[in-house]
Every structure is written in C-alpha cells, then in structure tokens.
Amino acid sequence: MRNPVVVVDGMAEADQGLLLPTATLQLGWYSSWRNVHFDLTPLRAAVGSPSPVVADLLDLAAAVYLADLALPRGRNEQFVRDVGLHVPVREPELWRNLKSEVNYLLYLLTGDNIAVTFHERRTEAESKGSPVSVAPTDCDCVCLLSGGVDSLAGAVALLRTGRRPLFVTHRSGNPTAAEAQRFVIEALRRFRPSLRHVLVTLMPRSSVGTLPFPPADVREPSRRSRSLLFMALGIAAAAGLGSTEVYACDNGVLTVALPLSASRVGGLSTRSTHPAVLGRLSALCRDLGLTCQVINPFVYQTKTELIRDVLRPVLSLDEIQATVSCWMTGRRHRQCGGCVPCLLRRVSMLAAGLPDEAYEMDLLARPGDYVGTDAYVNTVDFLSYVNRLSALSNADLLLSAPALLDLQAHNVSVADVVSMLKRFAAEGREVAEGQFPAAARLGSELG
Question: Predicted confidence band at 267 (pLDDT cuts at 50, 70, 90)?
Fold first, then answer.
C-alpha cells in the first residue's frame, strides 16, 4: 500500500481537498503551522536567492528526506517502502516532463518505490524570509562537508591543491554531528583562515499548533536520501556561484556499494554516492538547465588510504578522530561500533596506523557477546565480505558481482575499482589477524 506524503506549502486548495484526507504525512516549512525548520538564510547570504528551478529542487530534496525520515522501514519483505510524494513546484511542466527520471533517481538512491507527482505551486503562499545582503566571494567550487572522515579528506585535498571551495553543511539538529562539524571547520581554517562555510538547517519540529511529525524514537534510522538533500544544497550553492563543480567525497568501498552479503542485495545496500546516482543527478541538472556536476574524486581510494595519505600528513590525531562516521550518531553516547560505517572506520583507522577509538560495542574484540543482535549480523557480513574479496580472483569477483561492469557506463575504471577492493580486503584481514583474534577466527569459520 502506497503511503501518500503531501507538501502542503503552496498546494492549491483543490489539490489539498483531494489529497489531505488520505495523507499519511503532511509537510510544511513556510507557514505558521509548519512542522519542519528549513533555514536557507545562510545559503542566500552566500550566493543569493535560488532561481525558481533550484528552489524546486531544494523543496523536492527536502520532501524526499523528510518522508524517508518519517516512514520507518519494515522487516524482511516489508523493507522496501511504497511512497506517493506530492510536491508543489514553480516550474510544473518542466518537472512533469522529468518525472520518470526523478523517480528512477530516487529508486537508485533509496531502493524504495517513490512516485513523485508535481503540482503547480501557489507562489503567494511562499515566504522568502527577511532580505539579506550577499557577501562577495572568490570561491571556485563547492565541497560538501558532513563532519565525517571522507568529506574532511576531500576538503583538505582541495585546499592543499589551491582550490577555494565554498563549504556546505547540512545541520539536522543532531548535537554530536554538529560538534564534529564545528571541529572540522576549525581544523580547515589552518589551511585557509578566510574559508567560506554555509550551514543550512533542515529538521522536523513538533509543537502545539503545528502539523504532526513522528517522534524521534519511531523515525527511520537509515536516512539514505540525506545525500540527495546534501547534494541539492551543493548544487544550489554552485548555481549561485556560477561554478560547475560540486564535490561529494566518499571512499571507494562505500561508493561502489557492493552488497556485503547475498541478503543485502537491492534495497539493503546503500548507494549514497554511487556513480550511477551521481551520474543521474548530474544529468537531471542538465535537464533543468543547470551546469553543475556532482563529483566524487575518491572512487579508487579506500578509507584507510584517505586517512593515511590525505589526512595524517597534515592533521593531528585529535583532529582526525573528532570526525564521526556512525549511523547512530547522536542516538548513542558514543559511536556504536556495530553499524557498517563504524566497522569500516575502525578497521581503516587501525590499518592507517592510528590508535583504536572507544566504541559502545566492541564487536571485533568480542563478537560472541553480541550474537542475536543486528550488530552481530553486520559484523558477520563485514568479515564475510572481506574474506570473499580476498579469496576471489579478479575474474571471479566480476562474475560474482557483475554490477561492477556497469560502472564503465559512468567513466569508472572497473580494473581500478577491483584493485581498490582488493587493497581494502587486505587491510581488513591484516587488522583482524593482527589485533582481533576472535574476529579472525569468526572470519575463518565463515569461509
């Protein structure tokens, strides 16, 4: 059954009358009864007010992210969600002509069946906020900055090569992520004290008199569509700058998004920066009349290599480990240690020669203590993935994962990706065998 989600702001009264009685979720961020805090003032101050089509892209990305957040996934066959998303836009004919491209992009990114219907927007309903003065800037590109290791590596690489990025960050209200973002910006100011940073806040809000939004404890934790929101903010910044480059930096292991196990095929594998997603988004920009291209320069690097070769030569241990990677960030007292990003981060930090960090769960040292938990399943799948990559020849790896061959359509070298995956597997085995005998034994039992 499809879940109808309706963006109420700007929706014509006739459409509201048809849609709202059956809506699973209503969203608003301009009106007094709004249930979303969406503050674009810093972006407008940096690059000016977005054009109508860019404003539409931002509204679409925000709606997708909020629907993703509000509609929890089910288990097993209920994992993939069916969502009918209704969004008022300023350029309705343009967006209607691109509906199939938008829906396919959302499927690639989330694994869900999201069908977007575009409605003509009532412009008088829109609030543009108070006037702002646009600060002059000499920025020559946009770099997305999340507070994680990989985006920090991208920022450092750009600054050290003489580029002048405008850094763009999404603030979700998560205090742990906000602290990491603040530390990252302070570290980068050593390279360019006058760097420009735009912080855009988008988060649900609930209070008396507002539209309802599900409370935090029942929201969807995976939030795969956040990368679309993040990249849309970067595209808006680039369009305002007149730049063509938006850098969305992620390590190659997560970028190529091979399923860790057969049970994670399809919707169970994250594709936040997959070349197919970036390619489709860049193509959508062209169809919208925008010249922006979303770029990930690290598709051939492991996370270990980013830490060891990009960050460690110029940043302190504290600056590197002030970043956060955990999917549960802000919902635990520290990084959980049991999600896939935590497992990848821990192995990569150790393989790069950095000391171990503190995690809430010590899955690699004592995997048997967590049997029956999702964290244990993640650990088993992670170790199996490392062993499988190590054991397979290059040809057999391609036979077992033919989706890698599709990367050629996006100007990605399959041979270089295979080499990167092999290096990652060697890093994982070295760390397990050298520092975590229980994990190494479990890995050997898995074959």
Answer: very low
Query: Does the pLDDT at position 323 exceed 80?
Result: yes
What are the extents of the domains in the chain? 3-125, 141-208+221-295, 326-446
Please, are residues 431 and 425 in contact by the beta-carbon 8 Å criterion?
Answer: no
CA distance 68 to 56: 18
Beta bridge partners of 118: 87
Percent of the chain with pLDDT over 90: 79
pLDDT tens, residue by residue, 167-177: 999 988 778 88
Angle (deg, nearest 10), helices 226-241 and 52-70: 160
Strands 113-120 and 3-7: what pairing?
A: unpaired
Going by C-beta distance under 8 Å and a sequence separation of 6 or more, which residues neighbour residue 7? 27, 28, 59, 63, 85, 86, 87, 88
What is 141-208+221-295's CATH topology?
Rossmann fold (3.40.50)
- Given this model, what pLDDT does residue 328 score? 72
Indicate if the pLDDT at residue 372 is higher than 60: yes
Please give the Cα distance from 89 to 87 (Å, whole number). Answer: 6
Residues in the chain: 447
CA 299 – CA 387 distance, rounded (Å): 21
Instruction: Report which of 270, 222, 227 is spatially closest to residue 69, judged by C-alpha positions.
Output: 222
